[in-house]
Amino acid sequence: MRFLMMHRLDESRPEAWNPSQEFIEKMGAFIQDSAEKGILITAEGVHPSEKGALVRKPRGAAIRVTDGPFAEAKEVIGGFALINAADRAEAVEFAKSYVELFDSEIEVEVRQVVEFDEIPG
């Protein structure tokens, strides 16, 4: 099974977007080890919301695009990882290891990916 992990962080904290060299090295080693074990498919950080956009299609209305930053959101997605895990419990354990890498407050949402063969046909 595949699981998507999205980590959220407080965008207003300067350290959220300026990781230390120590953190970069720690994360790099974790990513390499996890990929070599066949757990990690991909992992990426994302830029702050000021460089993003929100595209909405309200029911019965025209598509709207809002440029970042998104003032209404205190916590924003700071990055994601796509992993292989036998089940939700294994994915959560991996997420715990991932969270341990961070010195600051962080939240990771773990969601199972819908596989094509799960879609009713």
Task: Offer a quick outline of the entry.
Helices cover 23% and strands 32% of the residues. The chain has 121 residues and is an alpha+beta fold.
What does this structure look like?
- This protein is α+β, with helices and mostly antiparallel strands and 121 residues long.
- The chain contains two helices and six strands, in the order βαββββαβ.
- The chain has a four-stranded antiparallel β-sheet. Strands 3-4 form a two-stranded antiparallel sheet.
- The protein is flat, with a radius of gyration of 17 Å.
- The model has no long low-confidence stretch (mean pLDDT 91).
Radius of gyration over C-alpha positions, nearest whole angstrom? 17 Å
Main-sheet strand order equals: 2-5-1-6
**First-last Cα distance:** 20 Å
Largest sheet: 4 strands, antiparallel
The number of distinct β-strands equals: 6
Overall morphology: flat
Helix-residue proportion: 10-25%
The H/E string reads: EHEEEEHE
Mean pLDDT: 91
Point out poorly predicted stretches: none
Structural class: alpha+beta
- Determine the number of helices (DSSP H or I, runs of at least 4 residues): 2
Beta-strand residue fraction = 25-35%
Q: How do the strands and helices of this protein lay out in sequence?
A:
Blueprint: E1 2-10, H1 21-36, E2 40-45, E3 53-56, E4 64-67, E5 75-84, H2 88-99, E6 107-112
List keywords for this structure.
alpha+beta, two-stranded antiparallel ribbon, 6 strands
